[in-house]
Design a protein that fits this description.
It contains 6 helices and no strands. The protein is an all-alpha fold and 144 residues long. Helix 1 crosses helix 2, helix 1 packs parallel to helix 3 and helix 4 packs across helix 5. It starts with a helix and ends in an 18-residue tail after the last helix.
Length: 144
């Protein structure tokens, strides 16, 4: 998202929250609320996938503090959940499982060089069978 457009939406979402006392919802009959809610949901998804820029996160935190409350797990909690799942089941979750989809995004980010090294190292150290995660030349889905 272009940062000027991003800022306009962030201000609109913050204004909505201030006026109504709640965050806009994506599913509603109010078209303005639906538009702002969809944008905010998209920000949550991008944050979860670790693709919002630091500047965008800082902008949201400044303009709309609390924008990321009561929604899906953060990266750290999802990583811990994957580690626990692998330890308990000794296999990757099925493709329909939310942890599998989350891991697929993380793998893609790692392969493209967009996942922080601390996150790659955490997965390598804490996720049973994924010690080669993020290593160049290894397949995304290698699980040993």
């Amino acid at each position: 998202m272009h940062n000027d457009t991003f800022r306009v939406y962030a201000v609109a979402v913050a204004g909505y929250k201030e006026k109504t006392g709640s965050w806009p919802k994506a599913v509603t009959t109010d078209l303005l609320e639906a538009s702002l809610g969809s944008w905010l949901d998209n920000c949550h998804k991008q944050f979860d996938a670790d693709i919002l820029t630091v500047k965008q996160i800082e902008m949201l935190n400044q303009i709309a503090p609390g924008w990321y409350q009561n929604i899906s797990l953060t990266w750290d909690l999802k990583a811990i959940a994957l580690s626990t799942y692998l330890f308990e089941n000794c296999e990757m979750p099925k493709k329909s499982h939310p942890l599998y989809r989350w891991f697929a995004v993380q793998s893609g980010l790692a392969k493209c060089g967009f996942l922080e090294s601390r996150k790659i190292e955490w997965i390598q150290e804490h996720c049973l069978g994924l010690s080669d995660f993020g290593v160049k030349g290894t397949p995304l889905w290698k699980f040993s």
